[in-house]
């Protein structure tokens, strides 16, 4: 009888509020598209926004502290119950968490009216509250292995606080940008290092025998340590020559790590290809950042940052959102038309944005920026539109 009552509870909650991935994936994807839609017009002074920061800080803030935390929260609120065996955050607590995130977006985008202090308090609340909620679940479930994930969420929350301190003291953000990029990059490397080889192995196991992804071992641990040292060095001393060489070494190490996951054998599955491609953008970004530090006249730092932020983060989150949504709503783990469209658009937009940052096409760079902008917008908008029924409606039986 107790089992029957526990199983009956989810039916009393609307499907949209039954799991964290549903509202956060849907709203995060919509906001990802809307945010970038305004980015270039704001940057080119074609429109004005009632915010207290310049266009670059607005763009970076809303991606790193607005869009990505929502999607990360959606993923972790869904994954943590699987890690701990505890019930998911749902219903009213989930609604309140979503409202706090929405309040932060409203406050920041109208910060000229609210002022920096009120905006900062409202906006920073989400990551700190989410950190607390995740900490309670992980500690209560004695899931010590995932304390590393918690530490990175904490670093992202502190980076968000540092953003407001920098803007208050200096009028613009600098270190806080790199803290956020470093924290999210390491989160992608940590979680990606689990799910990419695992998903690839599961898929390949159904095919003819052959090479399988190498399980996590001491080499992966060493690569993660090297990546941490490199990114921490970049946060502290972004122009240091030693950091430049560390970036080159980290690029090679992570490329080798990716090769060991046998992505070449999984080309028939777009659900796997997008994850391997997303991870590939990380070493590409490390390489470009290293070259920028050592030979700044050859490559701009924007090329490396966009390889990581647009290619790496964008591709990985879309791949994870599609897979998690399909898996948790009773659909086959395959890329349907909506997923294929989103994946193709984000990959093309990322490549075009990197080329624009490299300035290889001269006068056409402005056009490339526009194309990349709309490619990103359409990629996330496509996910929101095509996956809205799955996110809004109850799980298929």
Give an account of the 3D structure:
It is a single chain. By secondary structure, the protein is mainly alpha-helical. The chain has two domains: 16-173, no CATH class; 191-397, no CATH class. It contains 14 helices and no strands. The two termini are 22 Å apart.
Give a brief rundown of this model.
This protein is mostly helical. Helix content is 76%, strand content 0%. It has 2 domains: 16-173, no CATH class; 191-397, no CATH class.
Low-confidence stretches: 1-10
Question: Which structural class best describes the helix and strand composition?
Answer: mainly alpha
Please give the radius of gyration in angstroms.
21 Å
> What percentage of the residues does DSSP assign to strands (E)?
under 5%
Number of domains: 2
End-to-end Cα distance, whole Å, is 22 Å
Q: What is the share of helical residues?
A: over 70%
Instruction: Please outline the major beta sheet.
Output: none
Shape: globular
List the secondary-structure elements in sequence, H or E: HHHHHHHHHHHHHH
Key terms for this structure?
2 domains; globular; 397 residues; mainly alpha; 14 helices; 76% helix; disordered N terminus
């Amino acid at each position: 009888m107790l089992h029957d009552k526990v199983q009956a509870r989810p039916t009393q909650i609307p499907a949209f509020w039954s799991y964290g991935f549903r509202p956060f994936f849907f709203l995060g994807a919509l906001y990802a598209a809307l945010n970038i839609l305004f980015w270039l017009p704001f940057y080119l002074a074609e429109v004005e926004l009632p915010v207290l920061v310049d266009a670059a800080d607005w763009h970076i803030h809303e991606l790193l502290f607005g869009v990505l935390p929502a999607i990360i929260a959606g993923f972790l609120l869904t994954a943590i119950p699987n890690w701990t065996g505890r019930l998911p955050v749902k219903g009213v607590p989930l609604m309140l968490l979503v409202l706090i995130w929405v309040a932060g977006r409203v406050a920041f985008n109208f910060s000229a009216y609210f002022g920096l202090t009120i905006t900062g308090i409202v906006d920073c609340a989400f990551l700190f509250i989410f950190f607390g909620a995740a900490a309670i679940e992980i500690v209560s479930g004695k899931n010590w292995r995932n304390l590393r994930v918690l530490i990175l969420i904490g670093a992202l929350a502190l980076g968000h606080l540092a953003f407001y301190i920098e803007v208050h003291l200096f009028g613009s953000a600098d270190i806080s940008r790199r803290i956020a990029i470093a924290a999210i990059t390491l989160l992608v490397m940590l979680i990606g290092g689990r799910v990419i080889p695992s998903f690839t192995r599961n898929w390949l196991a159904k095919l003819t025998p052959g090479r399988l992804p190498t399980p996590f071992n001491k080499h992966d641990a060493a690569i993660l340590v090297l990546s941490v040292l490199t990114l921490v060095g970049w946060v502290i001393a972004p122009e240091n020559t030693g950091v430049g060489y560390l970036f080159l070494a980290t690029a090679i190490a992570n490329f080798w790590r990716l090769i060991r996951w046998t992505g070449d054998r999984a080309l028939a599955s777009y659900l796997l290809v997008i994850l391997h491609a997303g991870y590939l953008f990380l070493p590409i970004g490390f390489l470009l950042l290293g070259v920028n530090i050592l030979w700044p006249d050859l490559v701009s730092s924007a090329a490396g940052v966009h390889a990581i932020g647009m290619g790496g983060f964008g591709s990985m989150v879309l791949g994870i959102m599609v897979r998690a949504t399909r898996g948790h709503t009773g659909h086959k783990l395959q890329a349907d038309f909506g997923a294929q469209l989103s994946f193709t658009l984000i990959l093309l937009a990322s490549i075009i944005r990197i080329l624009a940052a490299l300035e290889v096409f001269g006068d056409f760079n402005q056009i490339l920026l526009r194309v990349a902008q709309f490619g990103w917008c359409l990629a996330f908008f496509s996910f929101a539109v095509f996956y809205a029924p799955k996110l809004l409606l109850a799980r298929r039986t």
